[in-house]
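To close the chapter, one final illustration. This time we ask the reader to focus less on the individual chains and more on the assembly as a whole: which components sit near each other, and how the overall shape emerges from the parts.
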Amino acid sequence: MIKKYRIGNPIPTDSVIEEMEITAESIPYFIRDDDAKSLNIHMLKNDKVYGLGETVRGINKRGHIYTGFNTDDGLHTEDKRSLYASQNFFIISSDVRKLGVYVDTPGRVTFDIGFSKKDELLIVFEDFDADIYLIEGDTLTGVVKEFRHIIGRSYIPPRWAFGYGQSRWGYRTADEIREVADEYDKAGIPLDMIYLDIDYMEDFKDFTVSDEKFPNFKEFVNEMKDRGIHLVPIIDAGIKIEEGYDVYEEGVENGYFCKKENGDDLVAAVWPGRVHFPDFLNDEAREWFGDKYKVLLDLGIDGFWNDMNEPAIFYTEDHLKEVFDRIDDYKDMELNIYSYFDFKELVASIGNNESDYRRFYHEYKGQKIRHDKVHNLYGFNMTRAAGEAFERLCPDRRILMFSRSSYIGMHRYGGVWCGDNMSWWSHLLLNVRQMPALNMCGFLYSGADIGGFAADVTEDLLLRWTAFGIFTPLFRNHSAFNTRRQEMYQFESKDVFKNLVELRYALLPYIYSEFMKAALEYDMLFKPLAFEYDDDRSLEIEDQLLYGESIMIAPVYEQNVTGRHVYLPEKMKMIRFRAYDDYDEEILEKGDHYLRADLNEVLVFIRKGHVLPLAKPGMRTTNVCSEDLIYLCFEAEPGSYNIRR
Ligand code: GLC
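The assembled structure is written out below.
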């Protein structure tokens, strides 16, 4: 049962697509405090809280505080309250009740989930205007499905986007890209995509290609396509201010950029230097920006990633001026302990300063609205610009699209990657925990930078992360330019990497089928154990996941271990894969086990009555055939598995 309640006069977000009556009664279960602009609900001792999409910490969100306000903060330490996305849907769950709550408000909102008071879940709004959807159901999956129906079907990428992709900030020329493809082929490691970071552009200008570094780009795209490799370029939110650059000139001429109070276009800085931000919330500007993707589609490109769309701001020109003015005050000062910190903070305040989000406005649904009030919708609408354009420009083709920043609703137009993580073991575990929460909110095509974006990866971390990454729909190894090279062929264990990626390709019929079922049936691909088992231990498991209908996975996420504890909520068949055609099988009883998993091994558990199909892998997804399969079964017939093609 789903009901919609309204507080104040919320700005519509377009995240819910189903027309629903607003319930006149007051919001049940919650205590509403208009002065404090808050809603408060008592949590039972056994309540667990699942959801909130891309956030730090555990699968059970209880015990911390989270803020829905998209931030460009690459340091995802466990104290962070916001990351790049705001996906304000969660479920409070115990054996007594399952209550789904969607807080639809485009500005800042805080979820204090037993942080201030252990039995209270307090939602504090900056503006007390929101639509609140409450969903009562008997099961967690039932609640998720009801929610997902009202927000619309999840984005489905092309089949090749389930292959493996190599990315790196710093591939500067077409020859470097060729070399990556050659090295992967030489190592026999399957690959379907190579991502182009900002280096491919001319002076970091969207929808341009550097002729010098990537001559005859169209031919190059085709050459790679002939090898079965898709090039996937990045598109950033900021448009370089430069006379003669068509995107800049058209944007200025038509008034498509975000404006300050005085009507001037806001000037901020990101990679290209001084930029304007397109007003993606304005229907006309969104259509105009979306049409720009045609430039690259016409060159043969069929996938994109949208970045820097919180929007990330290195500085705004106005704030920078204010900082310079204030720096003068410190010039002749002898810095003491207080002034030192003030000064340091002043200088550091230029980047991603939240006050900058109060300096510009959008034309949204016929109203002028200050950015901070609709901040969380910016990345969503950038990706919507692309998604709507693809429907117009190539309605018969699926185009790969994923974004860094998001809000619920964007899941209809693209997937997400979890932004700039680190080559840390804790971020591998974070990746494991974020996946089911993202799925709950409709984001199925998602994944993190495998191996970690910043910091130097170690070979064992990359192996373990790959062993988990083979299950994430977006399976991409990405790293920053100043880090150790992270392509699999750079490491000693090339053969192990080959076996792992081949296993992904062997699992492709299963992964694709389960993804399609999740998308079409409004279900999740990754589920915490608590979604299907109700014994006490299952409710507490934070590092194993159900994956599709047939299997459970238990990734290893610690260094220098040769195995891990695994809890089996029922009797299952363990498969310890070393390669798609090299594995041990063993039936294991319900309960706790310590299981060996060397660096070259992946643990998969087939559930009773279920089937895991495996294909013969190929070097590209197009070489993986869904007809000729072998079936690993546990007390089930192969025919009971429904393959989607
Ligand atoms: C941002 C992105 C990262 C990209 C970099 C350069 O930090 O999150 O993935 O490599 O910008 O474009």
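The mean pLDDT is 97. The chain is about 25% helix and 25% strand. With these observations in hand, you are ready for the problems at the end of the chapter.
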